[in-house]
Amino acid sequence: MLMNSLGRMCLSLSGPKSDNRNDDSDTFICSFHHFPNGSITVYLRDFVIEGVQKGVPMGFRSMIAGFDDSKHNYLRFVGGPYIACGLYLCITGMFLTLPSDLSLLFERKLKDPHKSPTSAMELDFRSIERLGSVRFCNSKGYNQIYRFFLAQFYMLINIKFWKKAIEMQRQRWNQVQVQVRCILFLPYVLVCVMELIACFRYYGLPILPFTISVIRAYCGYLLTLVKNYRLRIVRYIGFVFLFIVMAAVLFFVYMFCTIFLDACLFLSRVCFFTFTGIVVYPKLSYGYLIFFFTIIY
Fold first, then answer.
1. pLDDT top residue among 93 and 8
2. Would you list the DSSP string of 195-261?
3. 50 inside domain
4. Co-location of 217 and 146 in the same domain
5. Residue 263 clears pLDDT 70, i.e. is over it
6. Is the dihedral angle over the CA atoms 48, 53, 57, 63 positive or is it negative?
7. Is the separation of the CB atoms in 62 and 69 below 8 Å?
């Protein structure tokens, strides 16, 4: 009964029935196939294709409809998901294979400021280690990069970090002349609040410091190569390539975040429909749950 009502709902969403449409089940938006054991399989391929043709945003699922239809549905500014994925794979392969030692390239760009910080956005390594409770200064390679970002994330749940950030703001305020404090009080409070929000977003989303590290690593690597040449035309060409590399890095990060979010949405949908199936068919799903937890443990 539930599947029949769902089928009628899909038919109502597909619009009125035309004269040249057949009565077969493959003309529905969703095709329902009943098997002898009582299970039901729902194919959404026709639904995705029809949705793409009508202009419904389908994300990477629009690739099912083909190149011509998908390029007008998703990621239009780069020519569609096919071209975007191709560029993403090419740029990723280039970034992974061009440096002789990728871990050393990133490790060199994790420089300790070695100065007294005036903002929570520019803490030295020792402060990050102490406030994040993760040691990374003695680590090497990818392990140091991983521990560095992990320590930055853990700082957010340490109340001492927020106390230190507010204390830095108070010290900056003490350096302001008394005559102009009344004028700058409200703007400075607003700036301090925005700075704390920026700290939360910067340290709470590791993709942001990772993006900055990638830009610094590859652009610094390219600048080092350009400085070794004395010819001005080579330097000019190198600076042009520098902007191209920055654009490629930003596109790489954008595609990485897009694919990551799309994967998270897919997994959340799987969890949601799995939970729905457990509620609707408890007897059938009970055995699968036991089998699933048996494999895990």
1. 93
2. HHHHHHHHHH-THHHHHHHHHHHHHHHHHHHHHT---HHHHHHHHHHHHHHHHHHHHHHHHHHHHHH
3. no
4. no
5. yes
6. positive
7. yes
Nearest to 103 by CA among 146, 138, 150, 152: 146
Question: Which pair of tokens denotes residue 19?
Answer: 């004269």
If we measure between CA atoms, which residue out of 139, 129, 202, 196 comes closest to residue 165?
A: 196
Which whole-number Å values give the CA distances from 276 to 31, 112, 269, 270, 280, in the listed order? 20, 51, 10, 10, 6
CB within 8 Å of 222: residues ≥ 6 apart? 238, 241, 242, 245
Mean pLDDT of 97-109: 75
Is the domain of 248 the same as that of 178?
A: no
How many independent structural domains does the chain possess?
A: 3
Give Cβ neighbours of residue 50 (< 8 Å, ≥ 6 apart). Answer: 14, 29
Q: Does 108 have pLDDT greater than 60?
A: yes
Give the domain range for residue 193: 112-205
Give burial (CB, 10 Å; 0-12/13-18/19+) of 77. exposed
Q: Is 43 helix (H, G, I), strand (E, B) or coil?
A: strand
Query: Can you give the length of the chain in residues?
Result: 297
- Based on the domain organization, do 259 and 290 belong to the same domain? yes
Contact 70, 81 (CB under 8 A): yes
- The tens digit of pLDDT for each residue in 37-73 reads 444 444 477 888 888 888 888 888 888 888 888 888 8
How many angstroms separate the most distant Cα atoms in the chain?
A: 87
pLDDT at 190: 92
pLDDT tier for residue 113 given thresholds of 50, 70 and 90: low
Res. 276: pLDDT tops 70: yes
Q: Quote the CA–CA distance of 41 and 32 in Å, as a whole number.
A: 6
Residue 28 tokens read as 């529905």
